[in-house]
Amino acid sequence: MLMFQRTMPKMALFSVLFIAVLFIAIDFWLFISNNVSLVSWFFDV
To answer: In sequence order, which ranges of the chain are alpha helices (DSSP H)?
Structure first.
């Protein structure tokens, strides 16, 4: 596990960024199409 963290820190960072961007894109699309935001569901805004 330590070896994995040492050899592929960029890959882990990229996957986290990719998931975040994907979540924002889906949330943005839902907001435009249905006027419903996932963020408001999760945080009760």
So the answer is: 2-7, 9-34, 38-43
Domain encompassing residue 19: 2-43
Handedness of CA 11, 13, 18, 19 (dihedral sign): positive
Question: With the C-alpha atoms ordered 25, 31, 32, 34, is the resulting torsion angle positive or negative?
Answer: positive
| Overall domain count for the chain | 1
* pLDDT at residue 2 is higher than 90: no
pLDDT, tens digit, for every residue of 13-29? 889 999 999 988 887 88
